[in-house]
Amino acid sequence: MISVSEKFESLRHSQSTDSTQRHCALIPFITAGDPNLETTAQALQVLDQNGADMIELGVPYSDPLADGPVIQAAATRALQRGTRLEAVLEMLHTVSPSLKAPIILFTYYNPILYRGIEPFLQQIYNAGARGLVVPDLPLEEAPSLLQPASEMGIEVTLLVAPTSPKERIEMIARQSQGFIYLVSVTGVTGMRTQVQTRVQDLLQLMRSVTDKPIGVGFGISQPEQARQVRDWGADAVIVGSAVVKRLAEGTPSQGLEAIAQFCSSLKKAVT
Questions:
Q1: Ordered DSSP codes for 29-94
Q2: What is the dotted CATH code of the domain comprising 4-270?
Q3: Which of 75, 106, 188, 237 is the most exposed place for a label (fewest CB within 10 A)?
Q4: Annotated domain spans of the chain
Q5: Does the model's pTM come out above 0.70?
Q6: Which candidate in 48, 53, 67, 235 is catalytic?
């Protein structure tokens, strides 16, 4: 299975010689177990077939500090239906061989510590995950996860907040694996009507300190916003709440059709 870094590299090589046609990766996010794990497995395949370059799979957690109301509600529904990490990974193990897009697992630090870092990493690798995002992982604690993850074949992506000073951005950029996740807003995830123009300045600042791919997430909910972020220089656009909301509306089959169309429209916007 291809790694996150390898996927970015392949996108870079497939890029048109025309510099105005920069290829930007699309990374949709869904919450595992909402509305159920069977639908999650189908959603992974639908996203994979409709333009997703990588897919972020959120593990439902009872105290999701970084998540906005849409994703919090999805996680709550999943937990109420009994969705647990073991079942999520069992589902992923079944579906991952059929996917082209690398799976990036999104989870909080406490479940990792509870299971033990190395057993957790081995478990998610065996299930097919190749990336990991831990939003509450302090930079100072990151090496304890980054080193064993790297040895296991899991790339841990660190987050840059819009308030981060240049010195901290440099530290994060040096340690982040796969890509660097730029949070476009101060606060939690969620749909916004426009992307803050400060993102453009942050992208330029980050470009001055690193050549690693940069993905922008939190608040992107429309194809036009995704295109804007691409034009500002992002290497990837991460879309969460807008996908989760569509998947949750109506019947599971209606939700799957909605995210297929939405993912396709986002892909066209960033290609």
A1: EEETTSS-HHHHHHHHHHHHHTT-SSEEEEPP-SS-TT--HHHHHHHHHHHHTT--HHHHHHHHHH
A2: 3.20.20.70
A3: 188
A4: 4-270
A5: yes
A6: 67
